[in-house]
Structures are given as structure tokens and as C-alpha cells.
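Input (structure):
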């Protein structure tokens, strides 16, 4: 009896954890921005890598394993509860592709590299789409 209760509780917790991705409330018209990756053509030093990584904006929603718990909490709460001070650090609004501008980020990366002394550089981006998510590769 006790063992079946533990197994059913474990199954319930796992199903609840799997369903907390936060993608259910994302429209099909506007996809969720999941981040970006930066590939370099040749060996670069750490200062250039740090400067380039700082220029990538906006920051995507944080992930824990495969889930986005801050986004899931944001979708679960009502409008009045979202404004309470208690939830300020625990919930995050979805970062959508319409809020990003990859052309401006590519220009910003190019500008940072130029001001570090590498004058002939080329920065391009590619869009990697999945069903409800989008990421950029620079």
C-alpha cells in the first residue's frame, strides 16, 4: 500500500515537472527566443570573447534542465499577483523573437571587435527555428 502511494506520487511529480516548460502559452505567430551561440573563425583571446558575449541582447529565459520555471510561474499567475513584490525575482516574462533585433546585435558585435583593433571583420547571423522556439547563431 505504502509503496504504491510513493510510486504514484513520484509519477505525479514527474508529469508535473515535464509539463512546466512554459511553451504552452506562446503564440504560433511569435516564437520564444532561446538564446544565441557565437562561432569564431579563428583563435581569439578571452578579452574579445568576453566583450562579444556582453553585447548579445536580450538575455533569454533561464532554463533548469529542460524547463523554464520562471516563465511557467509567470503564465500560472494572474495579472494582480504578478505585480506583488514577493514574485519579483521568481517570475520572468517571455522573451519573444519580436523583442529581438539580430541585425543590431551583429552590428554591435562588429563594433566591439573593431574597437579592440581587429579592423577587417565580418559578423553575420543565422536563424535556427524549431516548432515554438528560435535561436540565433552569430
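Output (sequence):
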Amino acid at each position: 500500500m505504502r509503496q504504491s502511494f510513493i510510486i504514484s506520487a513520484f509519477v505525479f511529480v514527474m508529469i508535473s515537472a515535464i509539463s512546466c516548460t512554459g511553451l504552452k502559452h506562446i503564440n504560433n505567430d511569435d516564437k520564444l527566443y532561446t538564446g544565441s551561440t557565437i562561432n569564431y573563425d579563428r583563435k581569439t583571446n578571452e578579452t574579445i570573447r568576453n566583450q562579444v558575449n556582453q553585447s548579445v541582447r536580450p538575455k533569454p529565459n533561464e532554463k533548469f534542465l529542460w524547463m523554464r520555471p520562471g516563465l511557467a510561474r509567470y503564465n500560472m499567475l494572474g495579472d494582480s499577483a504578478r505585480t506583488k513584490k514577493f514574485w519579483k525575482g521568481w517570475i520572468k516574462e517571455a522573451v519573444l523573437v519580436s523583442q529581438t533585433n539580430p541585425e543590431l546585435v551583429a552590428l554591435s558585435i562588429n563594433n566591439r571587435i573593431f574597437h579592440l583593433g581587429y579592423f577587417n571583420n565580418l559578423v553575420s547571423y543565422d536563424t535556427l527555428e524549431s516548432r515554438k522556439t528560435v535561436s540565433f547563431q552569430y
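Notes: The mean pLDDT is 80. The CA atoms of residues 47 and 116 lie 9 Å apart.
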